[in-house]
Design goal:
The complex is a heterodimer of chains A (121) and B (160).
Chain A: H1 3-13, H2 16-25, E1 30-31, H3 32-36, H4 43-55, E2 59-60, E3 69-72, H5 74-107
Antiparallel strand pairs in A: 1-3, 2-3
Chain B: E1 8-11, E2 17-24, H1 28-36, H2 38-44, E3 51-57, E4 64-71, E5 74-86, E6 89-96, E7 104-114, E8 117-125, H3 129-141, H4 144-156
Antiparallel strand pairs in B: 1-2, 2-8, 3-4, 4-5, 5-6, 6-7, 7-8
Helix pairs in contact in B: 1-2
Classes of the chains: A mainly alpha (121), B alpha+beta (160).
Chain lengths: 121, 160
């Protein structure tokens, strides 16, 4: 996944209407008319939003009988899960360093760490 | 010896927020000190493979902070304000100087679990979903492997 593809996904999901469409598609596939229903938007505007989502690879409209349904591309969200997992691991790694700092504080009964016990390299 | 549950994370789908939670074998007072004493803070904030130098640090309500992380001669500056500092909660702003228009609002809670254990909960609110997701994606770039190497080292020399 290139950073360009990433920015396209970011941009696609930055719009509240598109995010809402994605959230609704997460519950199941839908036709364009079904998708358009809750919004005060022309069908043309809905198609525009869909095009952005399609170009970013967030949704697809597989060929089939009319009306074609819009489907969420699960891999995109697997990818987002991966970013989140990496971010989480980075935080976990930071907190393990904090564990070590806290353990050292336990070794030093004084309130201020004026004198080091020399136990830590 | 200390079976600590790993960090949990949640990226809110409705607001550009990242929430995390982690339990520690420490009192709220110790955890608070590790977040407000600049010497202690610099020891763990990382990222690993980087040296962190605290340049400015006034961990009081209305105070400000700035630290610089260095790797291979490249410096990365971070700064912000301590909006409110109290024993159970810290509210602060956070900016990476490489992108000075982006300001995140961070809240940390220290929850006493009893028996010398404390839950740290953090929430980070960014300006936009793009900024939030860019933060999340930045997790990809920083060396996860390096982190594990450092962790192994700490396990080996008994600091964990």
């Amino acid at each position: 996944m290139t950073s360009n593809a990433l920015s396209r996904i970011f941009a696609a999901l930055a719009d509240p209407t598109r995010r809402d469409m994605v959230a609704r598609l997460a519950a199941g596939d839908a036709t364009v008319n079904q998708l358009a229903e809750p919004y005060q938007l022309t069908l043309q505007a809905i198609y525009k939003h869909l095009k952005v989502l399609e170009d970013a690879g967030v949704v697809s409209r597989p060929p089939g009988p009319q009306p074609r349904t819009v489907r969420l591309e699960a891999e995109v969200f697997d990818l987002m899960d991966k970013w989140i997992e990496r971010y989480r691991r980075q935080a976990e790694e930071r907190y393990r360093r904090l564990d070590a700092v806290l353990a050292r504080m336990n070794d030093e009964p004084g309130n201020e760490s004026q004198e080091q016990k020399g136990s830590v390299a | 010896m200390n079976a600590i549950a790993e960090t949990t994370i949640e990226a809110d789908p409705k607001v550009p927020v990242i929430r995390m939670s982690r339990d520690f074998n420490a009192t709220p007072e110790q955890l608070f000190r590790a977040h407000t004493d600049p010497e202690l803070f610099a020891q763990w904030i990382g990222p690993s493979g980087m040296q962190t130098r605290v340049v400015e640090w006034d961990a009081r309500t209305g105070g400000s902070w700035r630290y610089v992380s260095t790797r291979d001669g490249q410096e990365y500056g971070f700064r912000g304000c301590f909006h409110e500092v109290r024993p159970d909660r810290i509210v602060q702003t956070f900016t990476w100087e490489g992108q000075p228009d982006g300001v995140a609002l961070g809240t940390l809670w220290f929850e006493d679990l009893g028996n010398g254990r404390t839950r740290l909960r953090t929430q980070s609110l960014t300006d936009s979903f793009e900024d939030r997701d860019a933060w999340l994606a930045s997790g990809m770039k920083t060396g996860v492997d390096e982190g594990y190497a450092k962790l192994e080292e700490m396990l080996a020399n008994g600091t964990i």
